[in-house]
Amino acid sequence: MSIVVKTLSEQAYEIIRDRILANDMLPSKPLRQDALSKGLGVSKIPLREALTRLEHDGLLISHPNRGFWCGH
User: Fold this and answer.
1) In the prediction, which pLDDT does 29 show?
2) pLDDT of 32 higher than 70
């Protein structure tokens, strides 16, 4: 067995992805980055990296200057 080290961005990605797939995030409401970063205990930079990755995976939709929405 080997030790796997995950970055904060990877950890945030997995948690948010799991919430999206469990339908805990509504598509009609924008994701509040301040609340997410506080709730996950990460700064905005790793959170934005995770959100961008989720957008590339097709789970989120970003709107310039308006933030991210659940696209699943």
Assistant:
1) 82
2) yes
Dihedral angle, C-alpha 12, 9, 37, 72, nearest 10 °? -50
* Whole-angstrom distance, CA of residue 50 vs CA of residue 8: 9
The beta-strand segments (E) located in 1-72 are: 60-63, 67-70
- Cα of first residue to Cα of last residue in the chain, in angstroms, is 34
Structural domains in the chain, CATH included, are: 8-70 (1.10.10.10)
10 Å CB burial of residue 42 (0-12, 13-18, 19+) is buried
Angle at 31 between CA 58 and CA 63, to 5 degrees: 60
Q: Which two tokens stand for residue 14?
A: 């997995």
What is the distance between the alpha carbons of residues 52 and 8, in angstroms, rounded to a whole number? 14
